[in-house]
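Thread: "does anyone have the structure for this chain?"

Original post by V.I.:
We have the sequence but no experimental structure in hand. Need at least a predicted one for the grant figures.
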Amino acid sequence: MSKLNNLEDLFHHQLKDIYSAEKQLISALPTMKEKASNAKLKQAFEDHLKETKKHKKRLDEIADTLGIDLSGETCNAMKGLIKEAKEFISEDASEEVRDAGIIADAQRIEHYEISAYGTAVQFAMGVDQSKIAEKLQQTLDEESAADKKLNELAVNNINKQAKDYS
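Reply from O.Q.:
Generated one for you, tokens below.
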């Protein structure tokens, strides 16, 4: 790894990390969808998979604009979050409890992405890349909306089913 000398270097490093995170999530979301039993939760994962593919494409466009290669980095945070989710999915749990746990894992992933994109937006602004900051902000807004949707599913439906299951 080369030395990070300034905010632009750090920004590029951050983008590589996010790119790795998005690629890992694209691979993990189909399993989360498959293991969910609630139809609305399955649809939320399907919708987020499509959105995540758009996020990766947006990052590819940003890389082209900046003239950088985003490959070669591994986001260990996302790797760990996905590992935790996979471990939970293999637990012996009722469908209702599994769905509640899958949402909890998915929200941890969303919160990580919200943090990463929030930082990237600020770095883009800091290096006078306002157009790129706008693209990153769009993704940040979509990640926040996905988190809100998962939270509403949990609070209004799935957590209640898990509580009442016996």
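V.I.: this helps a lot. The radius of gyration is 17 Å.
O.Q.: and The helical segments are 7-35, 39-66, 76-89, 95-126, 130-164.
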